[in-house]
Design goal:
It is built from 9 helices and 8 strands. With about 220 residues, it is an alpha/beta fold. The chain has a 6-stranded parallel β-sheet, with helices on one face. It has a two-stranded antiparallel sheet with strand order 2-3. Strand 6, helix 8 and strand 7 form a beta-alpha-beta unit. Helix 1 crosses helix 4 and helix 3 crosses helix 4. The N terminus is likely disordered.
Length: about 220
C-alpha cells in the first residue's frame, strides 16, 4: 500500500464519513429518491441510478430539466427530513463500540449531508457526536474536493499528514487523498482505488482504528 501521506508516529486524528461508513442509509436514500421521483411522474429506478452518480442539482437537471431545481431540492429536503424522523435505519456493526472508545478531540465527522440530519440519525442510533462536524453547508466545494477534510483538520488543530480518513465511497476517498491524508476504506467488497488499507466492514477495522488512536502511534498505512 502507498504510505506517502503518513509519517510514522505522527498521525493521531480520525475523520469519518457518515452515510455508508458509520450509518447504513442505503435503503433510506433509495426510498427518498424513489418517492421524490414518483411525485414528478418519473421512473423511480432510473432516477435513483442517476442520483447515485451525481449531486442533487445535477440529478434534477438530468431527469427533470423542465422543473424548477429549487422546488425539486425543497421537495427532496422535505422527504429527507421526514426520513430522519420516521425512517428505519441503523449504525453499522462496530460503530457503537468504536466512537465512544475514541479520545475526545481527536475525531470528526465529514459529511455531504446536513448537520441536523446527522444529529437526528446519531440520536436515534445512540452514537455520540464529536465537537467537529463538517457538513454540506460548511464548504463551498464538496467531495471529491479536498476542502471538507482540510476544514475538519483545521478545526481539530491537525495537520493533514496527522489525519486518518475512514471512507466507503470513491468521491470521499479521492477527497481524503487530495487533502494529503491517509485513507482507509470500509464497507466495500473490493478496495476503492487509492485507499491505503481496505476492510470489508467497519467492524473489521475497529481494532486497528482504536489501536491507532489510543495506543502507541505507528504508520497507519501499514
Amino acid at each position: 500500500m502507498n504510505s506517502e501521506h503518513a509519517q510514522p508516529g505522527s498521525a493521531k486524528y480520525v475523520l469519518f464519513d457518515v452515510d455508508g461508513t458509520l450509518i447504513d442509509a442505503v435503503a433510506n436514500q433509495r426510498q427518498v429518491w424513489e418517492t421524490w421521483a414518483a411525485r414528478y411522474g418519473l421512473d423511480p429506478v432510473a432516477v435513483y441510478q442517476v442520483a447515485l452518480r451525481t449531486r442533487p442539482m445535477e440529478t434534477f437537471a438530468a431527469v427533470a430539466p423542465e422543473q424548477d431545481p429549487r422546488e425539486c431540492l425543497a421537495a427532496l429536503h422535505e422527504l429527507e427530513d421526514e426520513d430522519v424522523r420516521s425512517g428505519v435505519y441503523a449504525a453499522f456493526d462496530g460503530a457503537s463500540e468504536l466512537l465512544p472508545g475514541l479520545p475526545s478531540g481527536c475525531w470528526a465527522l465529514v459529511t455531504s449531508n446536513y448537520e441536523h440530519r446527522v444529529r437526528g440519525r446519531f440520536a436515534r442510533t445512540g452514537l455520540p457526536v464529536p465537537d467537529v462536524l463538517v457538513d454540506a453547508t460548511a464548504v463551498a466545494e464538496g467531495k471529491p474536493s479536498p476542502v471538507p477534510y482540510l476544514l475538519a483538520a483545521e478545526r481539530l488543530g491537525a495537520k493533514p499528514e496527522e489525519c486518518l480518513v475512514i471512507e466507503d465511497a470513491p468521491s470521499g476517498v479521492e477527497s481524503g487523498l487530495r487533502a494529503g491524508m491517509t485513507v482507509w476504506g470500509v464497507n466495500a467488497p473490493v478496495p476503492v482505488d487509492g485507499v491505503h488499507r481496505h476492510f470489508a466492514s467497519l467492524h473489521e477495522a475497529v481494532p486497528d482504528i482504536l489501536a491507532f488512536t489510543t495506543g502507541p502511534h505507528r504508520d497507519p498505512a501499514v
